[in-house]
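Milestone M4 deliverable, item 7.
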Amino acid sequence: MTLTVDTLIVWMNKFDDKIETNKQYLSDLDTPIGDGDHGFNMDRGMKAVEEKLSTKPSEKKVKLIRKKQVKFF
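Output delivered:
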């Protein structure tokens, strides 16, 4: 399977759905040793990711970025 912008967006959206569904549970897990807001913070962060991904770059731009990264490393 090739990782494309579209498959990454689908994966991130599915991950966001899981976080949103389980934000209370994740926060409950955080309560005994933290401040009980982990799930809510993850949900807020994923909303920001979702917003950014709604304006995805073109495949052409992604290929150019990948090419430059290979030269960098």
